[in-house]
Amino acid sequence: MARRGSGVGAEAGEGHVARVFLSVGSNLGDRLECLRQAVAELRAMPEVEFLDASALYRTEPWEQRPGQQPDEDTWFFNCVVSIETTLDPTVLLARLQDVEKKLGRQRGQGTPEDQRYEPRPLDIDILLYGDLVISGPDHLHIPHLLMHERRFVLEPLAELAPDTEHPVLYRTIRELLEQLEDEHRIVGLDLPRPWFER
């Protein structure tokens, strides 16, 4: 595990508050309701302060070539959520996996790579945790290893944090989005903001 940075948000622990960005998605069941419940769980989570959520997007499945899945009703719903927390990344990850399980996710057998493309009612990934760089077990890499390649991550993340710098690539989220070559479509949903309020 490697850490960089100093000051507030650089390391987790008692008295240290980290700004964290999460990718939250669903492609099974009532996708909108599932994401609303996920936000509600985050807002109620001890030692976590919910800050905001991006707009909600319908996104073409990233594991398929662009245009292979024309039926938008089978696409993912995705957003990015920002929180602040004093939880260590490994503890936060466990809490997020508890939320996934509570809202119906069942992880299959095999490696994280095998599980990556399973249909699921809820998927929550840690994108950025302050300016930490963590290379740990297969299930915990911060920054998220593929975030800079995915339009469904960068576009909503740029709504919340366009000037935040990727701690490995040393480019801002806005710059990564401008340079992105991902051709998968994402479509903003016509929902009032904040969409997560009932």
Which terms summarize this structure?
about 200 residues; single chain; 5 helices; two-stranded antiparallel ribbon; six-stranded antiparallel β-sheet; disordered N terminus; Alpha-Beta Plaits; alpha+beta
Helix/strand layout:
Blueprint: E1 18-26, H1 31-44, E2 48-53, E3 57-59, E4 76-85, H2 89-102, H3 112-115, E5 123-129, E6 134-135, E7 141-142, H4 151-160, H5 173-178, E8 186-188
Antiparallel strand pairs: 1-4, 1-5, 2-4, 3-4, 3-8, 6-7
Outline the structure in words.
- The chain is α+β, with helices and mostly antiparallel strands.
- It has a single domain, classed as 7,8-Dihydro-6-hydroxymethylpterin-pyrophosphokinase HPPK (Alpha-Beta Plaits).
- The chain has five helices and eight strands; from the N terminus they run βαβββααβββααβ.
- Strands 1, 2, 3, 4, 5 and 8 form a six-stranded antiparallel beta sheet that branches.
- Strand 6 and strand 7 form a beta hairpin.
- The longest helix has 14 residues.
- The protein is globular and about 50 Å long.
- The N terminus is likely disordered.
Please outline what is shown here.
By secondary structure, the protein is α+β, with helices and mostly antiparallel strands. It has helices at residues 31-44, 89-102, 112-115, 151-160, 173-178, and strands at residues 18-26, 48-53, 57-59, 76-85, 123-129, 134-135, 141-142, 186-188. The chain has one domain: 2-Layer Sandwich (Alpha-Beta Plaits).
